[in-house]
Write a structure and sequence with these properties.
The structure holds three protein chains of three kinds.
Chain A: H1 7-28, H2 32-57, H3 60-88, H4 100-124, H5 133-149, H6 153-175, H7 180-208
Chain B: H1 2-34, H2 44-54, H3 65-84, H4 100-120, H5 124-155, H6 160-168, H7 176-192, H8 211-214, H9 220-245, H10 256-283, H11 292-314
Helix pairs in contact in B: 1-9, 1-10, 2-9, 3-4, 3-9, 4-5, 5-6, 5-7, 5-11, 6-9, 7-9, 7-11, 9-10
Chain C: H1 3-21, H2 27-52, E1 55-57, E2 62-64, H3 66-95, H4 101-123, H5 127-145, H6 151-186, H7 195-200, H8 207-225, H9 233-240, H10 243-271, H11 276-296, H12 302-323, H13 325-357, H14 368-371, H15 373-386, H16 393-408, H17 413-435, H18 451-465, H19 469-481
Antiparallel strand pairs in C: 1-2
Helix pairs in contact in C: 1-2, 1-4, 2-3, 2-4, 3-4, 3-10, 3-13, 3-19, 4-5, 4-10, 5-6, 5-10, 6-8, 6-9, 8-10, 8-11, 9-12, 10-12, 10-13, 11-12, 11-17, 12-13, 13-15, 13-16, 13-18, 13-19, 15-17, 15-18, 16-18
Classes of the chains: A mainly alpha, B mainly alpha, C mainly alpha.
Amino acid sequence: MNADISLSAQLINLFASVILLLAFAMLAQRRVLPLINLFALQGLTLCLSTLVVAFTTGQAHLYGSAALTLVLKAMLLPWILHRLVRQLQVRADVEGLINIPTTMIAGIVLVMIAFNVALPISQLSSTISRGTLGIALATVMLAFLMMIIRTKAIPQVVGFLAMENGLFLAATSATYGMPMVVELGIALDVLVGVIILGVFFFQIREQFDSLDIRNLEKLKER
Amino acid sequence: MNLFGTLGQLFAIALALLLAPLLTGWVNQCRAWFQNRSAPPLLQQYYMLHKLFLKDVVLAHGASQLFRFAPFVVFGCMVLACAIIPTLSTDLPLAPAADTIALVGVFGLARIFISLAAMDIGTSFGSLGGRREMLVGFLAEPALLMVIFTTAMISQSTSVATIVETLAHRDFVIYPSLAFAGIAFTFVSFAENARVPVDNPATHLELTMIHEAMILEYSGRHLALIEWAASLKLYAYSCLGLALFFPWGIAQGASVSGLLLAIPALVAKLAIGGALLAGIETLNAKVRIFRAPEFLGTAFLLAVLGLLVRLLLETRI
Amino acid sequence: MDLFMLMLAIPLVSGALLTVVGERAWAPNLNIIASLGTFLASALLTAEIVAAGPRFAFGELFFIDSLNVFFVALTAFVGLTTSIFSGPYMRNEQEHGKLTAPRLRLYKSMFQLFMFTMLAALTTNNLGILWVAMEAATLTTVLLVSLYRTPASLEAAWKYFILCGVGIAQALFGTILLYFAAERVLGETGNALLWTHLVGVKGQLEPTIMALSFIFLLVGYGTKVGLAPLHNWLPDAHAEGPTPVSAVLSGLLLNVALYAILRCKVLADGAIPGGFAGNLMMGFGLLTLVVAAFFLSRQKDIKRMFAYSSIEHMGLITFAFGMGGAVANFAGLLHMTMHSLTKSAIFFTVGHASQKCGTQLMEDIRGLIKINPVIGWGLMLGTLAILGMPPFGVFASEFMILTHAMKHHPWATPVLLLALGVAFASIFGKVQPMVFGETHARPLPHAPAITPVFVHLAIVLMIGLWIPPYLTRWFHEAARMLG
């Protein structure tokens, strides 16, 4: 029954699965530097997957977005994050308080929800990569989970960026990508966002001497 | 034909009994090489079994009948497992019995007996090992079942023979789900066979051992049977993994040429697999027992992911 | 040069310019001049649209019709008054040692860039660009919220960034789904995110996808509107940022985010039968209203309290648009206008009041009427206006919303009345002793700019008494577009 799937569809599915796996790996990774590397790897996989879609469908603008992904998400953003980690001297930051098995089970539940939500939609799609919409949504939700459970600033930001990766995958899988002008705008926003956050990290550290977000829980309704 | 089938089956069992200690010896040898130690001879396991069979059995005072029967039960379970896993051919008389869920049950039965026997004497190490073994088993079995369900969904059957036939005869298709399942299966095998991230087969350090703690009280032929059973378990898991994920080379019919061709393929695959196992063991450190749930949780996660990915990506296209 | 391009170019160029020269003594004036230029351009543009009808700009990338030109004019106007207000206010902050010259430069340039992103978000025809502009608006304001670099302001900014970032990511997913639904109808021509094209085929969009898409869009942009339960960032950001930033956040950003939801609602209404989108908005609106009303009574910080008041009003407006129909839409638009003007006026007076008393804690602000009668009266009148007392415009719009709700959704009326009542009691009870009462505060080094407060309140009063016919026509036109 699988004989009629073309090789490119299989490759796309494989890359999507790898992206999902990397999302889980990021969820479980306690150290900062490997986390950034995993993020870069996810960006690279995303780029490869986009390339396969572009090659198969002949959509010229997808080559553009693949290149954008490669430069931005696999190279520039990890580089900026590495630099930040070096300058802020938080290489040794370890998340102590995350319970990995529980997180993983929560992640699996999220994946199931995402797959079920995406199922009716992807059935309406006619793209070669439609099956991966569920994975895209799952990646978004896992990144969301990561932002919730992390207590350090940089992992939260990596979660934010991973969410963007998932959204990009969703755009590619449902519709062969958004119009180029929108994608450029999104990329610009993400880049500016990370740079602003970099500035922001220094401000936080200047105030609190650490990048622990638990310092930032004073404003509450009393 | 029937006679030929029976002979083939007997041959497969004999091969398993012979190859299993060899495989363990090969893994130990590779491990020694990787760790820059001088290696024990390849046939060390045979020498040891031989020595143990010649020795007398020393029984603890409080040992019940269970303690004496357990090695035979465990050994019998492992032989049965090796017999029904299609190592050489998918068309042997016992192949229809090779239901994967039953197979998990057979392994479970062996585990229960060896744990009970360990607790039977009443020494603290035995109970400790038994409890730890049950913990590992309790975490590993669901993951193993998930792996099996993934492969079963691809082939629409839980019979190992059918799965192997389906997977070996397909066109080249990339199954991301199988990749997930394969990694999960590797994790489970490490845990089940008392290998390094979870247990260390080469240590008798009290606080860390699991499998060795359970068999401390055994001696003589009982110990020989248990050691042999452990080798057979490794062999069974290796063959199951090879059958599920690298089924090429396993004979489909029951012909002599097919069987004869299957042997070198099997030996080659086992040799490579054993070397890989030794390599992974060398590169990793044993984790604390409290981290074992994390390790096996990852295996379960991967297996479930494989299942989900299978449902999402591969069923409707 | 085209008026529209001028309107977008002025804030962009002046924002860039102010990053260079923002520390000079005359920089605040440049800020005011730029805002004035933007306002004049937008006023002329409004006249042009009212006279000649909708138009495109840059191909089909931007689109101005009577709905968004109304918001454009409002945005530019509040931007102008805020820049006038912020001149002396920020100088006082500098004298008090709370801010340094480089941070003032950052403030001015980011303020102009923020105006640019707001105007771009309002006028774009492309729903993807709308998203990009909304995200850019967050980015430009996040450093403004943390301008004081106090622990609390950093926390507020971080929360603002993370919550809005998560929210806006949901909105992007909604946009992707919308694009997907549209591409099935419009084909791969690249027009499938253009609102003008979408509106033409809204009846043919797949309802399942549109329903899911609208949920994501509502939750996503709703985070920026401050809809419960994702409203947590709003009080913090308002309370910890400088007052001009609170004023524009409350007066403009919330409006623009709501505008984004409205544009999407038009499409969702066309695609999904049975008023799904409206019901969803009514539910969220009502929830927000009630949550905010009950939090209001517990506030101690004056800016926090008025931030909750903003959430409350946003809930009410969302509810109004959720009801739909000509009257409710009219009332919603009117209420948005009135709220923007009144709330920014209140923040102006609150800024000066807390500057004078050196605190934002309400129990330490006392007797404003004695220190500075103008600020005291300004706060009192503004509070009365925002609470919906009769001669002011907020009364007119709240009255319309309430009567419409009574007629069409009677079940909601008690909830609305209860929430408004609780809000009234808590705000009025707290503002009264601040205005009247004993005090001993020092005068400020720079005379506060009070004119914007009274200009805003005068407009609100005027609309409460008499809405000019062209404004009515314009509101009607916009309300009709919302369906």
